[in-house]
Amino acid sequence: MIHPRIDELLDNVDSRYALVIVAAKRARQINNYHHQLGEGIGFDDAPPPLVESRSKNYLTMSLEEVAQGKIKYAYKK
After folding, report:
1. Whole-model pTM?
2. pLDDT tens across 6-51, in order?
3. Which of 59, 60, 61, 30 has its CA nearest to residue 47?
4. CA dist., res. 9 & res. 22, Å (int)
5. CA atoms within a 13 Å half-sphere pointing along the CA-CB vector of 57
């Protein structure tokens, strides 16, 4: 079974397309955060993960953030 479920994720974003874009961008930010830890650089562009996750996969972490409502996206017309 896939966790988090797609219906939980779509509560916080407009569409599946938006979900893919938001999750991928956030996964890159989490990746950058982990690479900056050893370099001692500030965390302005790459904030730390917003949820505790059992997974080490950055995309899974970003999807869990969306599912828990830590990240939301709505297209403004």
Report:
1. 0.80
2. 888 888 898 999 999 999 999 999 998 888 876 666 656 677 888 8
3. 30
4. 11
5. 8
